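Appendix C: a fully annotated inverse folding record. The material below is reproduced so that readers can follow the format used throughout the book. The structure is listed first as tokens, followed by the designed sequence.
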């Protein structure tokens, strides 16, 4: 059986290790180096609606721009109608 002092030392080492790891994780954003970029958006909506057992409608909208409220860079609208000719 271990003595209380050995157990408390182990718990103290374990808590110190946890605190050190937490500090490293919290400091990571301040010491990392990444690309500098301006603000930009890429908003995507993907949806699908089953009409009945054979028909399905798929919708997709992608909106991309470089500035928050600036010029439109790219707008992609897509609608697909799917028909199953036979089911397995």
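Designed amino acids, in order:
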């Amino acid at each position: 059986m271990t003595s209380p002092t050995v157990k408390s030392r182990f718990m103290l080492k374990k808590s110190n290790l946890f605190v050190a790891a937490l500090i490293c994780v919290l400091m990571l954003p301040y010491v990392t180096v990444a690309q500098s970029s301006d603000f930009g958006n890429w908003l995507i909506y993907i949806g699908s609606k089953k009409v009945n057992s054979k028909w399905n409608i798929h919708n997709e909208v992608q909106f991309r721009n470089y500035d928050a409220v600036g010029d439109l860079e790219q707008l992609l609208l897509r609608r697909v109608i799917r028909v199953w000719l036979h089911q397995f």
